[in-house]
Amino acid sequence: MPDESSHESTDPSRPARGGTGRRRKPRSGRRKALVITACTLGGLLVVAGAGAGFLYFKLNGNIKGVDINAALGTDRPKNVDNGSMDILVLGSDSRSGANAQYGADQGGARSDTAMVVHVYKGHKKASVVSIPRDTLVTRPTCTDAHGKTVAGGNQQMFNTAYEVGGPACAVKTVEKMSGIRMDHYVEVDFTGFKKLIDTLGGVDITTQQAINDDKSHLHLPAGKHTLDGEQALGLVRTRHGIGDGSDLGRIQLQQAFMKALIQQIKDVGVFTSPKKLYDLADTATSAVTTDSDLNSVKELAGFANGLKGIGAGDMKMVTLPVQYDPANPNRVLPLDRQAAQLWSALKADQPIPASATKDSAGDKGAAGSVVSSH
Q1: Residue 69 lies in a domain
Q2: Could you tell me the residue range of the domain that residue 69 belongs to?
Q3: How far apart are CA 154 and CA 171, in angstroms?
Q4: Is the Cβ–Cβ distance between 250 and 256 less than 8 Å?
């Protein structure tokens, strides 16, 4: 999800603040974006698209697409068809346009939030792996939007991949890290996230303690709340109002919020209200950028319809196994052995073993227990 601070230096030496069921079949033929966008959009679009032809064309024109396959060519992990599916979900932190109210735009947008969503064969369960934006990784050589080659390098912050090379470079970096080919890409920004929450009618949560963070403009007493879009954005951006102020704690909070959101989506009754249904479909298609295999109503609906059976209880959410960088506590380093365990399990379509996250700083702390669904 978006960060509450303005853009920071990407120099790792400087401290940072604070469905179809088949997989990887080539076709001829894009933040802590919420996974809910993908997991529920299919049902919304199927009904809305079936109502009238002009709705199809209106919604179809909303969707933005990026041709990841053409950008990366053959320099990718092998296509494997075992019934599972891997999706890179990004939240971009651009301050341009309608997002300018969240800080000055000091350069290209970065991937403030990144999640690899692995959907297991049968599409009944999923594992979600959050990649901390401040993780120091080996970034591969990429090509920017103007066709210029951008050299890779060691000890680069993960979120710089999107900054220097856009969605394709972010996908390439994740694939090099994991050895897993990403089947799809989905991205949401600040404004899109807010609109989705508002159109949904807010999200019901319970906070176990008061949250007060001037930087994210969020002030909530302990108790039950229905968050509107602005409040929800503040919640997923906050890192100073809960725990030790680290990005790892914020990830735990975001994961808890996502579970509350997924739980609620099943109870909103959108199919009994054509207007509600259309408004959600219109907002969702306007909010996302996808890979080119999903940038039509038909493809996006089929993809998401295959995921709609996955509920909050069917998702295992973890953070990439990391440790704080001894040279800079504002950065984290992957725990290579544990990370290899995690990626190997997903590659084999197996559950993530407990040993993969046992010693990870990413899954310690209690920030995630602060927020729950009603």
Answers
A1: yes
A2: 35-362
A3: 17
A4: no
